[in-house]
Design brief:
With 119 residues, the chain is mostly beta strands. The chain has strands spanning 3-7, 10-12, 18-25, 34-39, 46-51, 58-60, 68-73, 78-83, 92-98, 113-117. Strand 5 (46-51) and strand 6 (58-60) form a beta hairpin. It starts with a strand and ends with a strand. 32% of the residues are buried.
Length: 119
């Protein structure tokens, strides 16, 4: 059974930082492109970032490029998202997912972790 468990969310002031983690199990993690998605209240899911199987290639949405960094540890089946200079518009529930976008019918995602950016 594929399992993705996110952690590290919380409330932070604008300009602050958070590091999200995702523990993966039930599949061969190193064989999958992985991504982060987010969904703000009353909005649809939004792709945030993706990383290649070996971690050498990373991709970001325009909204987070230069502020967020995706990484992975294949030995530990872990995915990470370092978020810096957070803005109120980054407030959302964040999900890790398999696949380049995490939105394809056969992609898996976790239950998510909440990030609130507010003063």
């Amino acid at each position: 059974e594929v399992r993705l468990v996110e952690s590290g969310g919380g409330k932070v002031q604008p300009g602050g930082s958070l590091r999200l983690s995702c523990a993966a199990s039930g599949f061969v993690f190193k064989n999958y492109v992985m991504s982060w998605l987010r969904q703000a209240p009353e909005k649809g899911p939004e792709w945030v970032s993706a990383i290649s199987m070996a971690g050498g290639m990373t991709y970001y949405s325009a909204a987070v490029k230069g502020r967020f960094t995706i990484s992975r540890d294949n030995a530990k089946s872990m995915l990470f998202l370092e978020m810096n200079n957070l803005k109120p518009e980054d407030t959302a529930r964040y999900y890790c997912a398999t696949g380049r976008t995490g939105l394809a019918p056969d992609d898996y995602s976790g239950q998510g972790t909440n990030v609130t950016v507010s003063s």
